[in-house]
Amino acid sequence: MKRTLALIALAVLVLTGCWDRRELNDIGIVVAVALDKEPKTGKIIVTSQIIRPAALAKGASQKEAPVEIFSATGNTTIEAARNVTQVLDRRNVYFHTKLLVVSEQIAKEGILSYLDVFSRGRESRGYIWICIAKNASSREVLGVKKGIEQIQARHLVSLIRNEKFHYSSHTLNILRFYKQILGTGMNPVTGALEIVESPAYAIEQKPEKTTRNIKLHQSAVFKKDKLVGYLTPQEAQGYNWVIGKPKNGIISMPSFLDPGKKYSVEILNSSSDIIPSLEGGKASFVIRVQTTTALAETQGQVKPLNPEQMLDLIKKAERRSEETIKTEIETAIRAAQKKFNSDIFGFGNTISKKYPKEWDKMKTRWEEMFPEAEYTIEVKATIKRTELTHSPMKAEE
Description:
- By secondary structure, the chain is an alpha/beta fold.
- It has 2 domains: 21-231, no CATH class; 235-397, GMP Synthetase, Chain A, domain 3, CATH 3.30.300.210.
- 32% of the residues lie in helices and 32% in strands.
- Strands 1, 2, 3, 4, 5, 6, 7, 8, 9 and 10 form a 10-stranded mixed sheet that branches.
- 34% of the residues are buried.
- It comes from Paenibacillus ehimensis.
- Residues 218-386 form the Spore germination GerAC-like C-terminal domain.
């Protein structure tokens, strides 16, 4: 009897077809989506960047674009997305969507309602990166082709992933973006994509003197779900120190050995801790940052130093790194408090965890309290390695 039941179960698994199977020739694989708004009607414009499999096939013409871009309008995001099928001979699927680009207009009005479909849709995933199109429509951003990658969406995603090599911007996926908007005591920051002009070199075989490129070098600041401004690269660096993000990157500072020259340390790791205090109804914070770096380059040229001199140089470099990091953090906090009045660091969140009863009473007033919150910054920077040389070198005269 058991054997018979097992055979029946196996037959069901093997012989039953996939009820929702869709042939590759019938679907359009969407790798990026852009959201804009029509100025006159207020309708939503959804732009889909769709892969053309034939263009990526072995032996395909290099002149054939690997993607197609289609736009349609609707009263809601899902309606506009479905209306794309009026101009496209495929049924769009979003299993492989990696990037969502949102216009400044939508972001300033309030982005949450436009993202609802991405949280409900069974085809979309929470790991989709979300960026704001700065000084351009979001579909313009999807229309700029530049980079080594054949598929432009992958190029943009690579820019986001390259944040691990620097700390001048900060980008969230939709899941984390939602979590911060719907959470307590912290507002989100995500990447901003901007179209920039760059020279076209002869080796690129382009007739134009200039070419358009996409740069990820600023970060969009939100108050709840509304865009309120952008962090400069230096402000974003300070922000990343506070949240403990920098795991790599370069800090360049004036040389101790040769006036007018620079030296650089490479970030190997970092961590941070925000410690809140409440006294007399006022909030204050201690921000503790620790980082490990390596002396990566020095332009200062001197004769070889002895070990004692080299050790003293490293200690000076560590102190200067601490001062530089502290300045970057102060710049970021000043921007958050005075320019944006947006708690992007999660100061309020730390209060809610340590003082839950007090937070229940003060959370409705936190927007008024945050700009006046006091803070102390403690930074500990350690140089672990000096790479290949023991000291800077100078050519013999």
